């Protein structure tokens, strides 16, 4: 397995983990009071949007040639950092 494949597999695993975390937040939102439910839903939508953006970039990287993916990686890393920060904020807010 080359660097590109390893990177993509690791990223896919993290995206799957974050999808599971979004599902947990959704379950909490479903049980929350009205005011808290709105906050949960807003946060969940932001997380889903960021996750979808990261998934799109990952799909593009996967389809790219071995040379092109190296250039794309820095953009994906930035999106990844934004997503990680959003997850950290959301999880700390709703614990």
From TrEMBL:
Ranges in a coiled coil: 1-67
Keyword presence, Coiled coil: yes
Keywords associated with the record: Coiled coil
Name recorded for this polypeptide: Coiled coil domain-containing protein
């Amino acid at each position: 397995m080359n660097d590109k494949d390893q990177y993509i597999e690791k990223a896919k695993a993290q995206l799957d983990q974050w999808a599971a975390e979004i599902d947990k937040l959704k379950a909490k939102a479903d049980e929350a009071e009205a005011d808290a439910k709105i906050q949960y839903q807003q946060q969940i939508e932001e997380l889903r949007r960021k996750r979808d953006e990261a998934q799109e970039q990952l799909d593009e990287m996967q389809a790219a040639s071995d040379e092109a993916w190296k250039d794309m990686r820095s953009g994906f890393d930035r999106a990844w950092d934004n997503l990680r920060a959003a997850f950290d904020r959301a999880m700390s807010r709703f614990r």
